[in-house]
Each structure stands twice: as structure tokens, then as C-alpha cells.
Design goal:
Blueprint: E1 9-11, E2 16-18, H1 24-34, E3 39-41, H2 45-57, E4 62-66, H3 74-88, E5 94-98, H4 103-118, H5 123-134, E6 137-142, H6 147-151, H7 157-165, E7 168-175, E8 180-188, H8 190-208, E9 210-217, H9 221-235, E10 239-243, H10 246-249, E11 257-263
Parallel strand pairs: 4-5, 9-10
Antiparallel strand pairs: 1-2, 1-3, 6-7, 6-11, 7-8, 9-11
Helix pairs in contact: 2-3, 4-5
């Protein structure tokens, strides 16, 4: 759809990858085998400027929609890149938008803007389409294990141990006001967590209507397929499945499953 990407990176002590270049199975299997939780890093100012300059040379305006500024410094770096590139190309319009989220909750915003651009709509219409989705998108997910949250410093060792013993599964979501991932609720087991998440989506569907659903998972295709069958049977709309990439996935780990949806109103 003519969407340009500027990838973040994931870093092991002995290897570094752009997220767009690493094989997901290799990445997650390496974490399992080594027990090492890698770090992630944002694009450099030079990386973003290079991409902006490449587009500006073509004579195109730029609408750049990035990972939540509360989760990554990418957005702030892009603002600096915009300032520098506009000194070189003052005739080009560059807007930097904070998605307040990640994964396909971000992706849906980008695609909505790209669709408008493909129809020949103006810049403002594309920007408005992205804002429209941002105001209506929700993302709920549940990790299969608390190990990654513990290793990443998101929960303490005692909480992780107690949660494992009691089969506690946190329902996580992205707060679209703060752009932060936070604990929404706890449930006893993955099945109970998914049922609760489905009830949340159903309540939103009844109140606002349901436009689009996307299932996310980390190395859990069977769970994702079962969830897809259930959602398509229930709502009769297309449901796609997408793996969660390493930059977000390294915080939640293998077995994570969830869904992103966008409401009509």
C-alpha cells in the first residue's frame, strides 16, 4: 500500500537484528534456549532522516505514525528529524503522529491513512482517517507465562512465582490516553482470561458497533486459529491473524495471544 517502514532493533549480547529482518521463530527459540531476554533499540536520528529525505526527494509529503511515545523514544526522535528535513525541504509537509499504542493497534491506523491516500484523498483526509481509528481501537492480550514479565522487570519475582502457582493470567491492555501497557484484570488461567476479553469486546460491540478484528499471537498459531474460528462464527466478519514482532514480544513471551479491534463509533 505504499507504506514505508523504519524498523526498531532487537539486541542479544552476540547478535543484533532489525525487527523486519529477523526470523520470528529463530528469535523466540533463542530466548527459550539461552534464557536471555534481549533489549530493543529505536531507530537513530540518522535512520529517520534518511527515510524522510528519500521520500521528500520524490516530492511527496510525509505522514509518519509511530509506536507510542510512552513506550519508545522513536516519536521524539522523529520530531527532531522532521525539524531538520524541513530545513532542507521547506515545501514538504511532514506530520508526526503518536499512535499511543503498538502492534496492529498501530497498524490499523497506518492502513486507514494509506487507504485514503490510495484513493487520491488529500493529506488532511489521510490524517483524519488515522485519528478516527486511534480513537476507536482497543488491544487486549494475555501472556501464557509470567517469566518474560519478570525478566523484563515488569513484575517482581514473588508476584511471578505466586502467579505461576495459582495459574494467574494477567489481562493486559494499552491505555489509549497514556500510551502505556498496563494490567487490566487478572484471571485464573488463559481460558478464563480470553472469555473475559471476549466479554469486553462484546460490550463495546453492543455500544459502539464492531468494524474490524485482528488476532495477535506469539508462537501460538493453534490458539490463534481457535480464536479466529470463534470470532468469525460469532460476528461474521473477516478476522486476520498476525504474529507479534520481537520488539513487543520480548516483553510478554511465547504463548501470548490476544486481539485488536476497532469499533464503528
Amino acid at each position: 500500500m505504499g507504506i514505508d517502514l523504519i524498523p526498531l532493533s532487537v539486541n542479544f549480547p552476540d547478535e543484533q537484528f532489525h525487527e523486519t529482518e529477523v526470523d520470528y521463530d529463530y528469535f523466540y527459540n533463542k530466548i527459550e534456549k539461552t534464557g536471555i531476554i534481549p533489549t530493543s533499540s529505536q531507530p537513530s536520528l540518522g535512520d529517520i532522516m534518511e527515510k524522510f529525505r528519500e521520500i521528500a526527494i520524490r516530492g511527496d509529503d510525509i505522514l509518519a505514525i509511530f509506536l507510542s511515545s510512552a513506550m519508545s523514544g522513536t516519536y521524539e526522535t522523529a520530531l527532531k528529524a522532521r525539524e531538520k528535513i524541513m530545513q532542507e525541504f521547506p515545501q514538504i509537509r511532514i506530520d508526526i503522529m503518536d499512535s499511543y499504542t503498538n502492534c496492529m493497534a498501530l497498524g490499523m491506523q497506518v492502513i486507514a491513512a494509506a487507504r485514503e491516500a490510495k484513493t487520491g484523498a488529500g493529506f488532511n483526509a489521510a490524517l483524519q482517517a488515522a485519528h478516527h481509528v486511534r480513537n476507536r481501537v482497543r488491544f487486549y492480550f494475555v501472556p501464557e507465562t509470567l517469566l518474560y514479565l519478570k525478566k523484563g522487570g515488569r513484575i517482581g519475582t514473588a508476584s511471578a512465582l505466586l502467579g505461576t502457582i495459582l495459574n494467574i493470567r494477567p489481562i493486559l491492555t494499552v491505555d489509549m490516553k497514556t500510551g502505556m501497557t498496563h494490567l487490566f484484570e487478572k484471571a485464573r488461567g488463559t481460558s478464563a482470561a480470553l472469555k473475559r476479553m471476549l466479554r469486553l469486546m462484546e460490550a463495546d460491540r453492543e455500544k459502539y458497533g464492531l468494524k474490524e478484528i485482528m488476532i495477535h499471537h506469539i508462537n501460538a498459531p493453534e490458539k490463534a486459529e481457535k480464536l479466529k474460528d470463534l470470532l468469525m462464527e460469532r460476528y461474521g466478519i473477516p478476522v486476520d491473524i498476525r504474529s507479534i514482532g520481537p520488539v513487543i514480544g520480548l516483553h510478554t513471551g511465547l504463548g501470548t495471544v490476544g486481539f485488536v479491534y476497532c469499533t464503528e463509533e
